[in-house]
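Predict structure. Chain length: 325.
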Amino acid sequence: MNLKNKSVLVTGGCGFIGSHLVEHLSKNDVERIIVVDNLFLGKIQNINSVLDGSQVVLKIQDASDYERMKMIFSGFSIDVVFNLAVVPLPASLVYPKITCEDNVNITLTLLELQREGFFKTFVQCSSSEAYGSAQSKKMDERHPMLPTTPYAASKAASDLFVQTYWNTFGGDMVIVRPYNNYGPRQNERSYAGVIPLTIKRILDGKKPIIYGDGLQTRDYIYVDDTAQSFIDVYNHKNTRGKSINIATGKESSILDMIKVISKELNYSGEFIFEKERKGDLRRHCADISLAQKLIGFSPKTSFNVGIKKTVDWYKSLFSDEGKSI
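Prediction complete.
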């Protein structure tokens, strides 16, 4: 299978991973890319590089609204949906009900539209957060779902709905479960992740903040590797009906990650250690053998190279912001 001449819809396409996926799709000879985003965290400038032609159509819309989404689907002949729209983890600590309702309703809206025949293939973006903290050295797709935050619970619930629609109604669908993504365009403002926050604090002359002892581990994967994996998952029919980890299979502590960023920014000062955050996971390291078997997956970007690219991008972003003030 391939995406040539297909019409593709990407929810959350102005966001972090979504915008990178849109860029990758634009290089795969697709006929049309419909981007649906409510711009809660996404930014139109994230896809500026592909908005200058007729290939990409932007619809500013909440993907959880069934009737309005149905109108969009009625206006286009759509083959494939990549669902990356999400209310993120940090927001769930402030607005748990909204986060859970929106994330689940986005998934249910798309599942219903697929069931009603508006498109053929559904690729769901899940999250490693659905697993909770690692109960084994490496976490494969059979790891129990033990979510520790409302966000994680909403992703676990969404995955279960995808699985039950597959079991009950059939259909062409697959769940992609990325681990901790990093890279250019990760949200740096409200509900920002630790990597852009750390870079910004150091560039602002402030000390980096570490919550807890910093020995919590994550499996960091560069965003371009994840974006390409979505396309590879679609292209391989043997993935259907499965959940597939996308990660590096290597764990790094948050403390070590901040040290790498600090070195890249020539920062040699102290770190601030604050109280551990509620729901924070202790360990994460993926077993990626299923992705290797099904799609020949192998991450291309090393952590040090990825961090350098990320730091360089944010240095340019924050420098440009400073000039415009």
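Summary: Residues 97 and 148 are 15 Å apart (CA to CA).
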